[in-house]
Amino acid sequence: MAKSTLADPPVMTSTAEPLRPAPVRGVHLRRRNLWIWAFLMPTVVLYGLYTIYPIVASYWYSLVEWNGFESEQRFVGISNYEAVLADPGFWNSVWVTVVFMLLVAPARIILSLLLAIVLNSPKLPFAALFRTVYFLPVVTTTAIVGVVMQFVFDPASGPVNAALQTLGQSRGINFLGESGLALLTVSAVYVWKFFGITMIYWLAALQTIPRDLLEAAKIDGASAVQTFRHITLPLLMPFLIIITVLTVEDTFRAFDLMQTMTGGGPFFSTEVIEIYIYRWAFAASIPQLGFASAAAVLFGLFVMVFGFFQLWAVYAARRLRVETR
Amino acid sequence: MIATHPAPRRASSLRDLFRRVPWWGTVLLLTLLALLWIYPFVWMVSASLKSSTEVFSGGVSLWPEVFVWENYARAWDDAGFGRYMLNTVIVTVATVVIVVVRCALCGYVLGRYRFPGSRLIVGILVATLFVPTGYTIIPIVKLSMELGVLNSLTGMILALGGAANVSFILIYAGYFRQLPKELEEAAIMDGAGFLRVFWTIMLPLSMPVTATVALLTFLATWNAFFLPLVFSFSRPELRTLSVGMQAFVGENATDWSGMAAAGVISIVPIVALFLFLQRYFVEGIAGAVKS
C-alpha cells in the first residue's frame, strides 16, 4: 500500500482520510456525510422512537391524569408524584427492590468468584463441562423457569417438599406462599438463574492475571490463601468494581422471575418496583397510567443514580488498572 | 493393583494420583453441585412424561411409571404451543436481523468517522446504557397504539429491535475503530465507494462481532417476557412461548404434566443452540467485563 501511494501521489490526495476531514474536497465530503447519516438513520429512528422518546414522554405522562389509552389526558401537575410518594405500596416496592438487591448481589458476586477460582485452575478435570452446566440456567427463559419453580416449590407435592418429607420434615413448607419466605425463595432462584453470568465475568477477569506471577508466588512458598490475598485479589479489584455495578444493574430487571413465580405476592412481599408499575398500568381494572408513569420516572431516577455510579466505577477501575500494571 | 508393582515409574504415577486426591474431591463436590444445578430441568423433563396424577401425587422419583408422550401433543396442539413457537421464531429472527443491521451500521460510522455530532451521539447512547423495560413500557405501548402496531407481531418486533442495545453499538464501534486504515484506503484507490467499502470489506471482517451480537440478541429476544406480555394482552394468538407458558398456568392450573411438556418445548431450542455455540455466548458475555 505504502509503495503505491508513494509512486502515485495524486491518487493519494483523492483518498479519504476517514478520521481527519480534509479541507478542500467539499463535494466528496458532503457525499461522505450523507452516507454517514444514512447509516445512522435506522438507529436514530428506532432508538429515538423506542428509547429516547419514551424517556422524555414518561415525564409528560407523569404530569397527567390518564385512565387507559383511549380517554383524555388531564394535566394535574405534580399531584401524581405526591400520590406515589404518599403510597405505602410504593415505598414497600422500593424496600423490596433494595432488600432483593442486597440479598442477591453479594451472593452472586462472592459465590461465583469462589467457583470461578476453582474452575480457573488448569489442573481441574472436566472444568469445561462444569462451566457449561453452571452456565446453563442463564440461557433458559426466565419466565418459564419462574413457572416451573412455582411447581418445584409447591408445598403439597413439589419435589423440594417431597425431598424434605423423606428427610423427616413432616409438614410441607410453603416457600412461595408465606410472605416472610417468598422473597428469600425467589432470591435463591434468581441467584441460581443468573449465577453463570457473574461466573463468566470472573473467569474473564481471572484470565488477565499472568500465570507466571502465581507460579512465582508458589515458588516463594506462599500458601493458597496468601496468594489470593496478596496477588489475585488486588489484581481483581478493578473487575470487582465493574462486576458489582453490572450485577446490581441486573437486579433491576427482576420482573420476569417475580411476575411468573409470585406475581408480587403474597401480600406484596415480592413486589419490586417494576411489578408495582405493571400493576398500576396494566393489571389494574382501571389503569392509572399517569400515576404509574410517575412511579416509573422515580424508578428511572433511582436507576440513573446507579448509572452515575457506573461511570465513576469504570473511571475508578481504569485508574486502578493503570496503577497495578 | 498399581501399588503392588514396585517399578519406579509406577511409583511416581502413584504419587501423582495421591497428589491429585484433593482435585478429585473437588470434582466430586462440583459434580454434586452440578446435579443440584440441573435438577429443575431434569424434574421438568421427568414431569413432562408422567401422567398428571403421578406428578401431582408427588414423590421424588424422576423415572415415570408410564411414559405419557401425549402430554407433548396436548401442549403443542391444544394449549397452542405450536403457534407460540412460530410466533417466537418470527419475532426472534426479525429482531436479530434489525438489531444486527442497525448496530453494525451505526457502530461502523461512530467507530470509523469523526463528524459533527458524533461525540454527542455517543454521549446520549452511553447515558441510556441501562434503561429498564419497566421505565419505558407505558410510552412504548402508547406509541405503538398511535402507529397502529399495538397487538401485532410487527409492533413487538419494532419495540424489541428498537430497544437500546447500546452495548452492541459500542462493541461494533470499538471493533471497527481498531481495524487498520490501509484496508479501506486500498479499496478506495480501486474506486470503491462508501457503501462498497462497508459491505465488501468492513462487514465481512466484523463477523466475530456479528456472531456475538446475533447470538446475544437471539437469547434476549427468545427469552423476552415483559414486552410480549403487554403486546399480546388482547390477542392471545400473538403470545410468545414465555407469555404462553404463564397464560397456560393461569388457565389450566392442574395440568402439571402438560405445563412441564410446554416448558420443555420452550426451553429445548435455546439450550440446544447454546450447546452448539457456547463459545460465542460465553465470549460475548465475558466481553462486557474485559472492555
Helices and strands in order, then pairings?
The complex is a heterodimer of chains A (325) and B (291).
Chain A: H1 2-7, H2 9-14, H3 26-61, E1 64-65, E2 74-75, H4 79-86, H5 88-120, H6 127-139, H7 142-152, H8 159-166, H9 179-207, H10 211-219, H11 224-251, H12 255-261, H13 273-283, H14 289-324
Antiparallel strand pairs in A: 1-2
Helix pairs in contact in A: 3-14, 4-14, 5-9, 5-11, 5-13, 6-9, 7-12, 9-11, 10-11, 11-14, 13-14
Chain B: H1 8-19, H2 21-49, H3 52-56, H4 70-78, H5 81-112, H6 118-127, H7 133-147, H8 153-162, H9 166-177, H10 182-189, H11 194-205, H12 207-222, H13 226-231, H14 241-251, H15 256-276, H16 278-290
Please estimate the helix content of chain A. over 70%
CATH fold naming of the domain at 90-290 in chain A: MetI-like fold
Helix content of chain B: over 70%
CATH architecture of the domain at 90-290 in chain A: Orthogonal Bundle
Q: Which secondary-structure class do the elements of chain A indicate?
A: mainly alpha
**Count of discrete alpha- or pi-helical segments spanning 4 or more residues of chain B:** 16
Number of helices of chain A: 14
Unreliable segments of chain B (pLDDT under 50, ≥5 consecutive)? 1-8
Number of strands of chain A: 2
Determine the N-to-C terminus distance of chain B.
52 Å
- Overall mean pLDDT score of chain A? 84
Oligomerization state: heterodimer
CATH architecture of the largest domain in chain B: Orthogonal Bundle
How is this structure best described in words?
- Chain A is mostly helical.
- Chain A has a domain at 90-290: Orthogonal Bundle (MetI-like fold).
- In chain A, 39% of the residues are buried.
- In chain A, a hairpin with an 8-residue loop joins β1 (64-65) and β2 (74-75).
- The radius of gyration of chain A is 27 Å and the shape is globular.
- Helix content of chain A is 74%, strand content 1%.
- In chain A, α5 packs parallel to α9 (179-207), α5 packs across α13 (273-283) and α11 packs antiparallel against α14.
- A two-stranded antiparallel sheet of chain A has the order 1-2.
- Chain A has 14 helices and 2 strands; from the N terminus they run αααββααααααααααα.
- The longest helix of chain A is centred in the N-terminal third of the chain and has 36 residues, at 26-61.
- Chain B has 2 domains: 19-68, no CATH class; 80-290, MetI-like fold (Orthogonal Bundle), CATH 1.10.3720.
- In chain B, 76% of the residues lie in helices and 0% in strands.
- In chain B, α12 packs across α16.
- The relative contact order of chain B is 0.13.
- At the A-B interface, α3, α6, α7, α8 and α9 of A face α2, α5, α6, α7 and α8 of B.
- Chain A: This is Carbohydrate ABC transporter membrane protein 1 (CUT1 family).
- Chain A: Residues 94-310 form the ABC transmembrane type-1 domain.
